[in-house]
Amino acid sequence: MAIRHAVVAGQFYPASHGECTEEISEFIKEITLPEGLPEQIAAGIVPHAGWVFSGKTAATVFEAIRKKNERVDTFVIFGAAHSFYGEEPAVYDKGAWQTPLGQAQIDEDLARAIVATPAAAASCGSHGYEHSIEVQVPMVQHLFEGAKIVPVLTPPVEGAVALGEAVGDIIRGQADKRIVCIGSTDLTHYGPRYGFEPQGVGPEAVRWAKNVNDKEFIDFALKLDPEKMMKSAAARSNACGPGAAAATVAAAKKLGKTTGMLLEHINSNEVMLEKMGQTSQESVGYAAIVF
User: Among 41, 127, 212, 274, which is most exposed with the fewest C-beta within 10 angstroms?
Assistant: First the structure.
């Protein structure tokens, strides 16, 4: 059986079972979900930085799903492609992913159905060093016992929208299985370290990155406009996983969703100030959205 071993445990999130579950439980204690969540959540957008920065934001989406969905059999997790430069989304289609919490099994039937479309190809090897999906898997394991996964690396190409639409159609045809789509993306990476500082440096520039640049991408997501999400990211560098997020929104749209709900929008500077009492001239945006 193909096993994808954890590569960022001990870096992006804890390396032991006990530390992982304790940290997730602490996130859950800190979360206050808003009123008016969708009756059943079909999809969500989560960040993928180290848990110390964005773990609570990601956990907010998973907790909302847990509160509103009776069960989840499988999560299709569309991931950003930081180190994969293929033109076609890559599906990890067999075996399991190993994390400190054990093995998360691949939903091989669903993976085969996705690979059978023109929108994606099977490629387990493409997932070797990518963290954007891995950091979500322990949360799935801890909060949704027995749930399977289908990891899909989704580069920012036009085919990302077609992929989401294809997955949405597949899910609609599997009424006996509860499937939720997750899109993994961080937002604007701002400052000299990232080579992106159109507003200069300083607090006002960091606020612009969140309140203007991030907001445009978020607004298109909330309006379920995946094409404009992709165009916005290309023009404004306001997402590192626009393909993953756009595929998620396209799937949600196919599943009958007409609007999204923003649960949280923060940046790394705000987290640093709260946890460490300091800020930086760089920032990264994080959003929690459900559909």
Answer: 274
